[in-house]
Amino acid sequence: MSDSENTGDEIEIVEVVTGAEDEDGNVVVDDLVAAVAADGTVVATDETVTVVTADGDVVVDEVLSVVGEDGELHAVEEELTVIESDEA
Question: What is the DSSP letter of 39?
């Protein structure tokens, strides 16, 4: 597409996944997906943070955010899921 055909409405999806293990043996994975406008402005994000504890419990926190009229990201939906290990 040439610059003359660019309407500025194109959105690119960018995903960054990071992971680490903390000193307590918990594994944390952060999966961030961002919708980025042609001018480089982030217009929305979907971030999912998953923690697997050393005891086998799983905690998933997902937050969906969109850009408000003030130009800042605002959380519009959050879902927290906890799955406890069957091992006692």
Answer: T
In this prediction, residue 8 carries a pLDDT of 58
Segments of 1-88 assigned E as strands: 11-21, 27-37, 42-52, 58-67, 73-83
Contact (Cβ atoms closer than 8 angstroms) between residue 60 and residue 80: yes
Tokens of 73: 């990201």
Per the structure block, which two tokens stand in for 19?
Answer: 């992971």
**43-53 pLDDT, tens digit each:** 999 999 999 99
Reading across the β-sheet that carries 58-67, which strands appear in turn? 11-21, 27-37, 42-52, 58-67, 73-83
- Band (78; pLDDT cuts 50, 70, 90): very high
Domain spans of the chain? 7-83
* Nearest residue to 32 via CA among 16, 51, 19: 16
